[in-house]
Amino acid sequence: MSDGNRKTRVSRRKLLRGGLGAAAVAALGGVAGILAPRGRTPRMVWQLDPLKCTQCGQCATKCVLTPSAVKCVHAFDVCGYCELCGGYHQPNAKNLDTAAENRLCPTNAIVRRFVDDPYYEYTIDESLCIGCAKCVKGCTSFGNGSLYLQVRHDRCMNCNECAIAKACPANAFSRVPAETPYIFKGELGRK
Amino acid sequence: MKRILTGLVILAASTGIVLVGLRLAFTPAGDRANPYPYDVQQFKSVATNLMRYAEQGRIAVTGMALRALALGADGTVYAAGEALVACGQDGRALRRFALPAQATCLTEDKGMLYIGLGDRIEVYDATGALLRAYASLGSNAVLTSVAVSGDDVFAADAGNREVVHYDTGGALLGRITGKDAVHGSAGFIIPSPYFDVAIARDNTLWIVNPGAHRFEQYAFDGRLLRQWQRAGIGTEDFCGCCNPTHIAIMPDGSFVTSEKGIVRVKIVSAAGDLLSVVAAPEQFADGDAGLDLAVDADGKVYVLDPAAQAVRIFAKK
Prior knowledge:
In chain A, the strands form 3 sheets. A two-stranded antiparallel sheet of chain A has the order 1-6. Chain A has helices at residues 2-35, 58-62, 134-142, 163-167, 186-190; strands at residues 44-48, 70-74, 110-116, 119-124, 147-151, 173-177. In chain A, β3 and β4 form a beta hairpin. Chain A is built from 5 helices and 6 strands. Chain A folds into 2 domains: 1-39; 44-190, no CATH class. By secondary structure, chain A is α+β, with helices and mostly antiparallel strands. By secondary structure, chain B is mainly beta. Chain B has a single domain (50-316), classed as TolB, C-terminal domain (Neuraminidase). Chain B contains 1 helix and 26 strands. Chain B has one helix at residues 2-26, and strands at 53-60, 68-71, 77-80, 83-87, 93-98, 105-109, 112-116, 121-124, 130-133, 143-149, 152-157, 162-167, 172-176, 179-180, 185-186, 197-199, 205-209, 214-218, 224-229, 246-249, 255-259, 264-268, 274-279, 293-295, 301-305, 310-316. A 4-stranded antiparallel β-sheet of chain B has the order 1-26-25-24, with no helix packed on it. A 4-stranded antiparallel β-sheet of chain B has the order 2-3-4-5, with no helix packed on it. The relative contact order of chain B is 0.13. Classes of the chains: A alpha+beta, B mainly beta. The A-B interface holds A 55-58, 60-66, 68, 79-86, 91-92, 104, 106, 117-118, 132-134, 137-138, 141-144, 157, 159, 163 and B 26-38, 40, 43, 186, 189, 191-192, 211-212, 231-233, 239-242, 261-262.
């Protein structure tokens, strides 16, 4: 009985000592928490740099989504509004018109609209674009490079390890702050 | 106990189903081959029998982005960017002087240098002293070429899509817009800032209409004399949105032309037929553009190569 009481007394002391220590540590942590800067790591998302992109076509095939979260976008202020568009027409197009055999895009995702002789406007139908980069390659190789690829964040799953980034031969993918999720060309890119 | 075991089995099974489902749903579409390849390299090959020129030498011009090239009557090579550099044929720099703005075009006539500085032309002597400054053509102006013959100066303005005719004193004599309602010409189509002019020995003006892949010959008073067009992807044609970017006239009246996209330099006859290739795409860096040209009396071709930071000299094999 007496042994049991002694044990109880010792454990209470230990408890008291431990409690005081824990309270001190908690107080120290609280003070440090109050004094510490209130910075937060910004949320980051995947994006590809159009100036590094080599239009390899893997954005269409490596993404976990089908069709890919990468789509073609158009910098209208860079476009020449050409009648012969390297991004729209087959390189050996017989006629510069909208006939299927003269078009480069495999899913007919580029819409060609007459503006004024001899200028045409080209817009991307994103619901059809699969991110294959054929038009981007044509435009970059033979035109002003106004068509380019971007990860669309209304689709991107923001995977921890982006399958396209892993496969990209040009190292064009990187994490960018979610507040500025796009890397634009043209006037928007200069802002 | 039995109920716990049953629960564990159900939990394990459902976890497995979920994992397999996730795996199937998020497996990269993955090592599929690209179903829509587009090989533009195939258009860059040049038949060897067309390669009738060889590179004879290079004059290195470093320290600035190169924009314009001219050849003096005495063989002096002038290259311009933020500054103007004059070099001898041996490559030695003779003079270098700073310019008030980035040069966009350049020519030499009777020892005087006519330099396009974006929106205006300034005339310098060979030592770099400013002789005259022409009036600005406005904030839209982008002068991309200048040519001089006698008292006539022609400047190609890509921004305003016209060729401006001056006298050597800078007085404005006229403008050529290329618009011709009768023949259905919509004027000069210039999708990118490349728009070249050259004066032939018969004192006529050749203007490149790059968006139409067309050469147009004009009298000095602006009358269209003739034109020809070569659009296509082959070596004998001019490809892409806007080519050729630069021209120069050979002593025999044929043209030497340079292109962007499929970067190459070639010789075409005055009627537009391909005669030979001076330099093939494989001789330039990918994306190289702005290959200004000059030709000497012997038919040697001088090519400004901004990516190589050099003036490259090609002569017939």
